[in-house]
Amino acid sequence: xxxxKIFLIVSLVYTFLMVQENSLASEEKLVPxxxxxxxxxxxxxxxxxxxxxxxxTMKGTLVFFQGIYGGGRRTGLNDxxxxxxxxxxxxHQRDTGYSEGVKGDLKSFDIVxxxxxxxxxxxxxxxxxLPLFILGHSIGGDFCIWIASKRGDLAGVIxxxxxxxxPVTKVPFKTKLKFMFDYIFRPGALTIDVTPPQEISNEKDQxxxxxxxxxxxxxxxxxxxxxxAARKLWEDSVKNxxxxxxxxxxxxxxxxxxxxxxxxxxxxxxWKYPAKTRIVIPEAGHGWHIYEHxxxxxxxxxxxxxxx
Length: 308
Hints:
8-stranded mixed beta sheet; Rossmann fold
């Protein structure tokens, strides 16, 4: 009887591992459009990014770091930035969008931070006298905080709904067991939905979540270790903010059900650089629709930073 049980357990584990391998191997690669370019990282991965430049003299460059869905498309905000003299760069995190890598699976986000540092070094080398800014939305904001704690050449940092803490939700015991099993036996299997597990009340956030589910550039599934790496990233946000040495603009929505912004308030309080601004938009949720309310604020802040 014991032999049969052992055989069944081994078979189950083997089946799960094969599902993992098959799901990763069958993934199709997306072909980047001509207006995207790329750089090759130290470990030979192509990271794709899109540059949107103003027709006349540039005042500065703003680099966008995306949220957990990854990828990223040109929006009206990029066009408005260009109209006001600012170039913008939309970078696709490795393992998302057009960039290379296994979609939705990373052991650590350290390697992503190194990618972003390489891109910033590249942009700084191309335009050494041009002010360089970074903007991070959701978990992209955590990357911004992390990078700002290491670099001293940034003209400013913009955090929009930074993923500083997720609301406490009750996880069923069966789900916990499943996560534990996955973490031990198939840590790279794409078993977790990227869609927020909690109920979202903001209607525009609901619309954006549905749109992301249809967007080929967006992650749909992630592995347990990817989720754990993301958790470590946001748990370090307050500590990293305490050594961030760049001006900062923090913006978050009052109807954001995805993030508990009590921790964002701590980020603001401990931010090392004295020039810091925090804005709460009561009617906004977590998604990109928040820029409908704050684009002018961002442009004005960038202009003031350039003057400084």
